[in-house]
Amino acid sequence: MAFWQHIVGFQQDIYQAFAAQIRDVAGAGGWGAFIVYLPMGILFGAAHALTPGHSKTILATYLAGSRLGMLRGLGVSLSLSFTHVLMSVLIALLALPLISASLGSVGRAPVLEDVSRALLGIIGLWMVWRALRPRGHVHAHGEGLMVGVMAGLIPCPLTLFVMTFAISRGVPEAGIAFAFTMMLGVALTLSTVAVATILFRDQLMRLLAHRARLLDRSARFIEAVAGLVLLAVALREVWLR
């Protein structure tokens, strides 16, 4: 509990500092100080991604059930991070006058959440079907990136807050700069999750490598379980909504 309180307090401090810097940029054009402080956005994004949410469980579940290598696994985490932050930037830039109507509550986009969960449910069904069918096929190129995009459709609420604040002060470019650095931080945390998951999965596969039939069954079982988890997440979100 103390750890999460520390993370939340850290985020609040950085957010308030960035808000002050944006006010300075809007009032006197103090871009120099803002640029110097901008790298703190990476720490902000990394800390923010540690809090519940950000599709970390979905990312780990998918990678555990897939056969993606390290580079392609990192690609999934990067596509998730990019989409997660980009959605907030686009909402703020293109739909700011309609935010109160399009968002069910501050920092949330129910329609995008529904789309994201529905698509992930489809991916879950696909993984279950693939685990049950005979082998001899390969994973479709780009599937992992597609999963990352789907999981990242839910916008980042804190990025949306900062973008809205910057636009209201007449300096949207400051908000975009902050969003970029925050995306790097989010990507850092999610990439760590991806690396840890792939290393654990590969180590398990190596332990079973001398037993081909058991390895095949274990791989199928893990993929099927991963698909069922994704499907369960989608159904749970739909049911709760």
| Shape descriptor | elongated
Class derived from helix and strand content = mainly alpha
Unreliable runs, pLDDT <50, ≥5 residues?
99-107
**Ends apart, CA distance between termini:** 28 Å
Radius of gyration: 20 Å
How many H/I helical runs? 11
Fold topology:
Blueprint: H1 2-28, H2 31-37, H3 40-50, H4 56-65, H5 70-95, H6 99-102, H7 110-132, H8 143-151, H9 157-168, H10 172-207, H11 212-240
Helix pairs in contact: 1-2, 1-3, 3-10, 4-10, 4-11, 5-8, 5-9, 5-10, 7-11, 9-10
Q: How would you describe what is shown here?
A:
- The two termini are 28 Å apart.
- This protein has helices spanning 2-28, 31-37, 40-50, 56-65, 70-95, 99-102, 110-132, 143-151, 157-168, 172-207, 212-240.
- Residues 99-107 have low confidence and may be disordered.
- With 241 residues, it is mainly alpha-helical.
- Helices cover 80% and strands 0% of the residues.
- It is built from eleven helices and no strands.
- The relative contact order is 0.19.
Give structural attributes.
241 residues; mainly alpha; 11 helices; 0% strand
What is the compact description of this entry?
By secondary structure, this protein is an all-alpha fold. The chain is built from eleven helices and no strands.
